User: What shape does this take?
Amino acid sequence: MRKLAILLFSGITGITLLLLAGCGTTASNVASSATGSQVSLSMTDDPPNGVTVLFFQIGITSATLTPSSGSGSVSLLSGSTPIEVDVTQLQALSAFLSTASVPAGTYKSLSITFANPQLVIYNASDSSIASTCAIGTVCELTPTIDDSATLNFTSAPFPVTVSASSPLGFLLDFHLNNVIQSDLSVNLGATNGVSVSELPSTHPQFGFLTGTVANVNASGDQFSLITRDGRTFTIDTNTSTTFDDFPSSDCSTASISCLVSGEVVQIQVASVESKGVLLASNVTYEQAAGQQTAEGNIIALNTSGSSTVMTLILHRTPFNSDSLPLGGMAQVTVGGSATFSIDSNGFTLPSGLAFTGTSDLYVGQEVTVDVAAGTLTTSDSPSGNGKWGPPPSASFTTDTVELEPSQVTGSVSAVTSSTSSFTLSSPPSLYFGRWSSGSWTPTTINVDTTSQTNYYNLNPDNFSGIATNGIVSVRGWLFAPASSSTSPTVAAEDIVGRPNRFF
Assistant: This one.
C-alpha cells in the first residue's frame, strides 16, 4: 500500500503542513511551543491482478482542514502548483513534499483533492489490454478518476484538537489494488481504497527531499534547496548532520563547506523548525552542477553488439526536463569504460555482495546513471487522456552506474534466524520474475539483514517480528544471483510490516 500521512506536531508560530510520501513518521525531534502544532502528509500502493504497476503518479491539488466552529476551511498547501507524488516508490520510503502555516484549533474534517493520475504498467496477464497493450509489454495510460477526486474525511479520528506540545498524526492508507479499477480507471472512493487513521506520536519518519543547492551560508549552517518543480526550502544543518558521498575535489572534511551552488543533493529531514525551516539529519551528494543524471528501475537487459543496454523506468530526474520525463522509459547503453559503484550512504553491506560491472546488473535494480554529453535522444508518447500507448522514451549512453536501494513487497516464505535472513516470495512485480513461453514465473528473493536494518510496523519492531506468511515491504540494495539456480539477494536497510495484508 501507499500511505498519505497527515502529521500534526508542536510548532513555533502556528501549524505547519508537511507533505511527505512514504510509510511512516517520527516525532522525537520536532520543536514545541505554546502556540500550535506541525501538520504533515505522506503517501504510500498495490497493483490489481494481472498487471504490474511500474509507475503511478498522482497530483495533490488541495488539502484543507475544516474547523469545528466558525466558517471556511484552512488550506494546507502553500502554492497553487499541484504536488506530484510517485506512489510506486513509497513501499518503504518517505519523501518530504511541502510546508505551509495554518492557525491552531479544533477541526472536524480533512478534505484532499487529487488530479492528473499517470499509470505505467507491465502486462503480466494472459491477454492484451484495450487491444493495444500486448502481453509482456510496457504501456502507459492517463486514467480517468471516477467522481472521487476529492475525499472528505469526517469520521474517527475526527474531530481533532491541535494544541501545544501535543503531537497528533494521521495516516491515509492508499491501496492501488482497490483504487485502480478493472478497467484501469482510478476510484479513490472505492472500499478500502483510501482511509484515515491516527498515527502514534512517537514514530515519525520525515522522509527525503532532492533538489539543487542554492544560497549556501556556511557560517550560518544553512542553505536553500530548489526542487525539480521549482519549490524552495530553507535547510538547516547542525553538528549531528552527516554529509555523504561528496567528491574529495569539493571538500576534504564532510561538512556544509562541501556544498556548491548548482549541485544536486538529497536530504533526509530530521525535524521542522520555525517558519517551516527544515533540519537535515543527512545530506547526500547526487550530482555535480550542470551534470545530467537519471534514476530508475531496470526492467530489461539486452545486448547491442558488445555493449549492454538497460531499459529503465524513470523515477527520479533532478531537473524538470521533457527529455527525461518521470514514468518514461529510457534505453541506456553502458559505455565500455563505465564505472560501477554502490550508493551505500553509510550502510555497511554484508560481505560477498558485488556490483563492479555489467555482469552484476539485474532486472529490478534501482540505479542512478549519468547522461553522457551529446548522446541523448527522445521520442514522445502518442497516448493521451484515457488512451493506451508506449510511455515517452529516451536513449543515451552512460559512463557511470550507481546501485541504489530497490523496493519490493511480498510474502515471507521462510525465516532463518541463525543468519538473520529470510526468503521473500510471490512479490507482485515484474522486477523479480520472468515472462517466458507464455507463462509468468515469479522469483524468490533472499533478504539479508544487519544491525543497521530498520524495522517498522512489526511486532516487535526487530527481526523477531518477521514471521512466515507475513507480508512485508523491503527497501535495500538488490544483487544479482550467483548462478541461474540461485535467487537474488537484497541487503535490507528498511523493512515495513503489512499486518492487514495491504501494501
The first strand starts at residue 2 and ends at 10.
